[in-house]
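Interim report to the steering committee. The following record documents the input for Glyoxal oxidase (784 residues).
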Amino acid sequence: MFASILLLVSWLASPAIAGKAGSFADGGNTSVSAMMMFVGNKDKVYIIDKAEGNAAQINDHPAWGAVWDFNTHQTQLMDIKTNVFCASGMHLPNGSYVTFGGNGAIAPGGNIGSVPNGQGAASYDATYQDYDGSKSIRVLNPCTDSDDFTSSDCQWFDNPDVLSMQKKRWYSAAEPLGDGSVALIGGFVNGGYINRNTPNTDPELEGGAAEPTYEFYPANGRNATVMQFMIKTSGLNAYAHTYLMSSGKMLVQANISTMLWDPESNTENALPDMPGSVARVYPASGAVAMLPLTPANNYTPTVIFCGGSDMPDHLWGNYSFPNTDTWLYPASKDCQRLTPEPLDGSAPVYVQDDDMIEGRTMGQFIILPDGKLLVVNGGLNGTAGYATNTGTTLSYSQMPFGMSLASGPVGTPALYDPNAPAGSRWSNAGFQTSNIARLYHSSAILLPDASVLIAGSNPNVDVNLTTYFPTNYQAEIFYPDYFSGTTRPVPSGIPSNLSYGGNPFDITVPATSYSGSSNDAADNTTVVVIRPGWTTHGMNMGQRFLQLNNTYTVNSDGSLTLHTAQMPPNPNIFQPGPAMLFVVVNGIPSNGTFVIVGSGSIETQPTGAASVLPDSVRLSGASGSANGSSGNDTDTTTNGGVSHTAMIVGSVVAAIIVLGVIGGLIGVCVSRRRRAAAQKNTSSYAMRNAPGGSGALSAVYGADSSKALRSSDSSAFSLQPDYNHSQQWSGSTANLTGDGRLSPYHDAPPYLEDSRGPHGMSMELDPYATQSRMSTSSPHGRRY
């Protein structure tokens, strides 16, 4: 008996914190709801909300900007002048970040601000003190812990009178080109649920509510120009999915249409429609990502589309609201792959991939350093967006989930392996389930230690802490499978800049970074460059993964020298700007090291010949010296990485568990003869359907069982610690009573051209280009 106890104690006391992999941890309070996020550097994640009534105050008004610290999980408020509601965003080549557009000034309850602009919106609101953000270009140069965050150098530059777009854009797409400039595509002018009126008699302008043009940042004299594809896809073309291809053309997908677009000539080449008429763009909001670019696939871009909605066109409604109770309509689980530029010259076609484990709307792909894709967040039914009524539920008091147009939160992440055999690419085994509903305005992003930060959710017009799916401020950190080990690689020799082609460089991985055969470890080592992107609305704009080519030399001391190529000599494959470099040994990533890819400037990028690598050199008998499995070391800190206090807490908890188990087992021995019989186990967590049940569903969809309302496998939302009782999803917190201030979306009236001219404010100025901080302390003015 005691031998068994000792064996159990030995397992529990193992350095590997087995409970960490696949688990969630408390990420702290974000102060503002995380509608948007991006990783600024090794220390900071920047968070942006829409202008709304957050309790957190800055300069005597509600805050809608914050910066989250990777080391402490604490936030510091940031002042943003204009309303960033549903803007787009992107990195710049020097490591700065920029957001584009947003909405007019908003007052409490989502009402138009106190100073109307005569165009159906407002230029300012005296209560929230937000300005019109519909043309804004906001620039931030991320700062680190060593910087003074009270300095203007560390704050958002947000002044539309100095820097703005030519057109008003809300829900626009943003995609960088090979020179580092950014293409901005489409959007609403002052929109609503979807980008059209009904009947749709003016698909180009929608009476002034739609913006069918594209423009560039910086403009460099180029005027905003109509994109016919935006007219073709009228209605479902908000946040179009955009990916630059190797040729310099751009994949653009919206509604159920797809094309290759040439930004230089504005020519469009139609590609096949989305199979099954599944919409992936907002508000269907499927999970979409470019698959890893590797030497094995010759860096050929392939994009995967999963989830979203196949809701018929007439049910989508218009600017005001959908024509059906969307929360009863199951999200799609369909996945399709598309290679827009096949190497063999064949015609591009969509290829059916494995279905997701469950349907998801608002699911989000996060590309992990091991080349797998994690999908998080979202709901089983419905769409993104919010409303006070639909075409069938006419009163807010009858809306079963408050303003939310989705139901059935999916709290269990799922993992997609693009290289697994067809039929076995999805799994969620061993993953915990979060009890926090992550629906509309949720976000997620890869952190420098290769964990995933998840935050946000606010399907409400303004802050609402008592409705069915309330405004959420609780962040979580999810730890993928590779956190199950005990040792992480600690590479050295990683440069701060990567060029397009040119001389290779050497990375050293010490023997202490892995265990087992050195030859095997070298064969299973990759060097990958990841751009986590700028995340909002289930998208990570700019997210890419590229594996650098490498060979190796195994040294007699067990260390590995990785002879590593520079980036492929084509900036279109991985556009210039900030990224994280990971060394992955036996599937376990190092902490990420921040690098700048390219010259750091918006310009035609210098390219060289592809790097030439020496042959690999193996050495029999060499081995790593790490103890245990090659996984996460609870005390490892390296370039761009930190150790989390959660690791220490986990160790303490494990020790407590050891003592508790010993006591418990002894108690079992003493009392086992007193037990008459074992109690029968029963489930504590019942599945829940949406209000209305199957009867309401049958009334809408008849006997078609394929459209049966899905009940979340995680609907209990009780398997995780309740980090914030007021924020957890619970049927008992439903508040189906309106407050009189809320109003549904309204059709936008025609809008007048800006009196300052057809091109708005200047887009030529980069307010950081001439600042003193663009100094020799960093070649691009970037702090890491």
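The chain has a mean pLDDT of 84. The committee is asked to note this result when reviewing the revised timeline.
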